From TrEMBL, chain A:
The name this protein goes by in its record: KLTH0E13618p
One GO cellular component term: Sec62/Sec63 complex
PANTHER family linked: TRANSLOCATION PROTEIN SEC66 (PTHR28229)
Species for this entry: Lachancea thermotolerans (strain ATCC 56472 / CBS 6340 / NRRL Y-8284) (Yeast)
Pfam family, one: Sec66
GO biological process terms held by the UniProt record: post-translational protein targeting to membrane, translocation
Origin organism lineage: Eukaryota, Fungi, Dikarya, Ascomycota, Saccharomycotina
Keyword Lipoprotein part of the UniProt annotation: no
This protein's UniProt keywords: Membrane, Transmembrane, Transmembrane helix
Transmembrane parts of this sequence: 27-48
Automatic annotation (TrEMBL), chain B:
Protein name in UniProt: KLTH0G14872p
Source organism, top-level taxon: Eukaryota
SUPFAM superfamilies xref list: TPR-like
Gene3D superfamilies hit by this protein: Tetratricopeptide repeat domain (1.25.40.10)
Cross-referenced InterPro entries: TPR-like_helical_dom_sf
Amino acid sequence: MSSNYSDFNSTFTEDGGPTVETKVVSFYTPLLYVSILVVSLAVFASHYRKKTVQELSRLPSMFDESVARDLYYELKQMSESEETKVHEKVLKAALLNRGAEAIRRTLKLKESEPQVTMLYKNGSVGEEYWKRYQNEVKLVDLEFKECIQEAEMMQPGWPQLFVGVCREICFNQALKRRYQAILLRKDVFAVQWDLKFDDNGRLLE
Amino acid sequence: MSTDLSELQYNPNSKLLGLPHSSEDVTMNISQINKLTQDLVAETNANFTPQPHAESTAMIKKMFENGLKQTQQQKLADALKSINLAIEMAQRKRTTWEAFAVQLQELQFMLKNRVDLCLVQGRFMDALQDLDFLQNTGLNSSDVFIRKTDALIKLKQYEQARAECERGLSLDPTNVKLKALLIENTRRLAEYNGDI
């Protein structure tokens, strides 16, 4: 057998040819590479997300501070502290008020959506304003979801009714605020137009 | 930055909240919660719905009909009082979660009657505020513009009266009353400016 080597292709049998060294690599090496890659990606993603959240949290809100939410948490804290036992219905009322405020904000954002989008597309408002708007939409959505969760904790099965009730409360509160402004407006106009009225509300010449 | 509510007071007997020296926004929210609490205390059903309470509806209707009856009897001052009472009752008795559509319609209907009574009795400023409310809540019929123009003319606010009249005419160009009011207002404005 050894004398007939020339009959075959001798690529693998020539003594002087380069020899390929095969290194023994552990089975865990590729796994290690992959895990390093995944961990570094995860670290980057986490860092990036934190940075984005920080940037977003620095953006000024489009609304004033939510007094309805603060009042609810203040009452909840009071009831948990055991110093003052807050009645369940008061907490429920505060939660309904908070839900109504969240709906009011959602509606305001929805109302202004076409105008804001148009202004952004025309270049009349900058990237920051657009981000503020989108951020606000997400925050308001989150706020309403939190309200629903609280409602579920307070009274299991209530959220189905809670949403509808909050909607009506939101509209009725707006109606009441507008109605109550009538008295104030009368005084403002009387001063502005320099008019005087008698006790029966009749104009004094 | 959250609102400072550290001095929030809670009365366990009345179940009402209070916060002295608070901002307008906080005061408004506290009064809203207090109204909701009172409504909830009176409500026996834990799973309440926006369905209007028949009892409140009947009481308000009775009071309002009493006002209409007094109007027919030409007791206008008493009629105005009754209608004011009916409106106040609707504000107090109706729970905040009762159907908005019903509450709005009811309030608009009562205010329309109050406007007429106010105009007849010369209470033009009161009428004007109610008319503003009606317009802001989506009632833009020519009747509202006629009354508003009339009230503004009586209050000698001719420039505003012209604006309202023209606004009404843009929605209803063939309205004879509005056209007449516009002519009358133009004459009075010229007189006021010393042109006549």
